[in-house]
Amino acid sequence: MTFTTTKKVAVLVAATAIVAAACSSGTATTAPSSQAPAESQAAATQAPAESMAAATCSGKTIKLGGLATLEGPFAVPGQEGFRGIEQALNDYAKVPGKDGWWLGDCEITLTKEGSDATPAVALEKAKKLIEQDDVDILIGPLSGDEGLAMKDYAKTVPDKTFVNGSSAAQDTTLRDPAPNFFRFSTDGAQWQAGLGKYAYNDKGYKKVALVAEDYSFPYTQVGGFMYEFCDAGGKVVQKNWVPLGTKDYSAVVSNLPTDVDAIYVALGGADAVNFFTQYQAAGGKAKFIGGSITVDQSVLATEGAFADSLVGTITASPTSDTATDPAWLEYVKNYKAQFPDGLPYPGLFALSYYNEMVGVLKGLQAVNGDLSGDQKAFMEALAKVKFDGPTGPVSLDSNRQAIASNYVSEIQKGADGKLAAVVISKVDNIPQTLGLPADSPYLAQPVSRDFPDCP
Fold first, then answer.
1. pLDDT at res. 303
2. Dist. CA 211–CA 15, nearest whole Å
3. Residue 153 sits in a domain of what CATH number?
4. Average pLDDT, rounded, for the chain
5. Alpha-carbon Rg for the chain in angstroms
6. Is residue 438 part of a domain?
7. DSSP letters along 404-444, please?
8. pLDDT band at 50 (very low <50, low <70, confident <90, very high)
9. Same-domain check for residues 349 and 428
10. Residues 384 and 345 in one domain
11. Under DSSP, is residue 62 helix (H, G, I), strand (E, B) or coil?
12. What's phi and psi for 376, nearest 5 deg?
């Protein structure tokens, strides 16, 4: 599998301490706020150069709905998702001297709803935003099964635009996509680009076992890793699928084989913390390969005896804490200025929602905020949007799925004792098919618990 460009870098930047508390569950409706510190607002209005103030839009309000997970194991990632939306609005739609967010003379409002990572609740909240709050555009959801439910719901409301949050199940866009659903973030398989080859060729891992949550997103992550790992000759000799929100991993830990080179872990949030804590307490010594959300800052910044066991873990993700791209550094600087209570580094949830929101704003700018005609002109413009995001160029394919960049990284401890993802390599312009030929057996059927397989 080949992609457009590959760059090798090696940097170590110390992570700072986490100051993030979980939001309470429930819903919140917000109007644009000017309560951020003045220096934060200044940084936001100076950071991407584009301004929407010159758009010829007047006389109406553009109503956005935001949907992210604020309960359950992904509560902290949900906060990051809303930070991503708000940072994009601050970066692109803040007008000096005016409160709120604007496209020309049209005010942009944001109504927030929180889910619990289940499709039923996500759908309930989405219907409230669309059918009761009458938002024009919905940005979300966060988790994989929620995204599949949103795709199906979008098909029943063809005059509204649905834009992904960070949900990353492959089939949200790869198979039978909704014509009014857009995803400016890459999917879970794209997030693993480069990792399988690196594990096999560079780390020498030939045989692994896996522990993953039992739903569509981890299926996609595992598939993305296995496409490369199995193709290189690697073997996945055991698969352990656990329910989302599992607290007791004792049975899984005791069942893991000891004759493997590494354990691939695709757990997120509290699930990852619980597994690593219990594995370390049981005396486990295996090396880890981490899924994209398994060793992001929502886990790395969590204090615990397990932390040292994560040093040396290899992972892949659309973000890397120590990336040195100027656009990334600017994005991180603005994130920290706008959200002093956020994570040490913005992770993939913040970036995904940020890129989704930037795509929406550029689409609105292209049509001067005109959402008439069942939003058809806006949707046509949205499908053509291209921009340079914090990690590189972002564009959409014919299924309205992002083509973007990815990092392979290794977890290291900085001089201050904090863990961070250190960039090993970066790959740009990754398509959803990962460069596989159309007749590849890996694309012959949807990813699942049993596919792909290389025991």
1. 83
2. 27
3. 3.40.50.2300
4. 89
5. 21
6. yes
7. EEEEEEEEEE-TTS-EEEEEEEEEEEE-TTTT--TT-GGGS
8. low
9. no
10. yes
11. strand
12. -65, -45
Average pLDDT of the residues in 272-279: 96
| 312 in any annotated domain | yes
Pairing of strands 58-69, 105-115: parallel
Q: Which two tokens stand for residue 83?
A: 């930070």
Under DSSP, is residue 390 helix (H, G, I), strand (E, B) or coil? coil
361 lies in which domain range? 21-186+324-404
Cα–Cα distance measured from residue 370 to residue 21, given in angstroms and rounded to the nearest whole number: 39
User: Which whole-number Å values give the CA distances from 432 to 115, 149, 175, 212, 400, in the listed order?
Assistant: 27, 20, 11, 22, 10
CB atoms within 10 A of CB 380: 12
Tens of pLDDT, residue by residue over 375-433, are: 999 999 999 999 999 999 999 999 999 999 999 999 999 888 889 999 999 999 999 99
With a CB cutoff of 8 Å and minimum separation 6, the contacts of 398 are none
C-beta separation of 62 from 109 below 8 A? yes
- Contacts (Cβ under 8 Å, ≥6 apart) of 373: none
Query: CB neighbours of 264 closer than 8 A, spacing ≥ 6?
Result: 208, 209, 210, 211, 212, 222, 225, 236, 288, 289, 290, 291
| Tokens standing for residue 108 | 């942009």
Helix axes 348-366, 376-383, angle to 10 degrees: 120
Cis amide bond preceding 452, omega within 30: yes
CB–CB of 360/64 below 8 Å?
Answer: yes
Distance CA 255, CA 253 (A): 5
| Nearest alpha carbon to residue 95 among 84, 85, 111, 106 | 106
